[in-house]
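Problem 3 from the worked examples.
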Amino acid sequence: MDKLLIADDDKAMVGLVSTLLEFEGYQTVTEADPSKILTTVHDEQPDLIILDVHVGGQETLDILQELKSDPVLGEIPVMMISGMDLRDQCMALGADDFILKPFRPQELLDNIAPLLKNSRGTA
């Protein structure tokens, strides 16, 4: 079972996304504290990270850069999400995908599957 980390401080959004993903057979872990995201990634070793650009009033682009520069964690696909169109900026910093909020549940699922497939080297 693939484990997905949802790093977002919007409780309603996290609840909806977690429920959707668990219904689809994924295991979910959540983190709403930006200062704990990297520790949670280290501890949980998720197969995919869904990272909001703003968590707890802090921009997380530096966390994205830190994740992608780590020799081990850098292999974990990171999907950035935001209510602002920051696709180009996120992709330039190493994000594997970007989804603009609000998104349809099927759009999220459609974007997750290839990221997981690619991370397993089966694409």
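Problem 4, a separate protein:
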Amino acid sequence: MREPRIARVLKFVLFALAVAAVLGFVVMRLWNWVMPPIFGLHAIGYWQALALLVLTRILFGGFRRGFGGFGPGMHWRRRMMERWAQMTPEEREKFRAGMGAAMGKRCGPFASPTSESKT
């Protein structure tokens, strides 16, 4: 029998808090181990480390789900591979021709030269 939705949400929230607590501690320890001796910066506390972690996620990583190739960033590729597998050879050729024409319009000088541009 499936767990109630509230129980799953509660488990997720608890897991997220545990991960945030561990990552905050790791960031604090790494900062205090590396940055003060090398650059002469001050040591930071746990809450500052957690804020630094959030700030770096906002500036550099965003808050996308998933890690590496397992998140929604790869969802488009899986869907495209499924569609490609269902295409007939004629449909694939038509798709390739359409993409080649589109790339020629969009990529400017990087596109392969056509007979029109040679004259």
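Solution to problem 4. The chain is about 70% helix and 0% strand. The longest helix spans residues 5-39.
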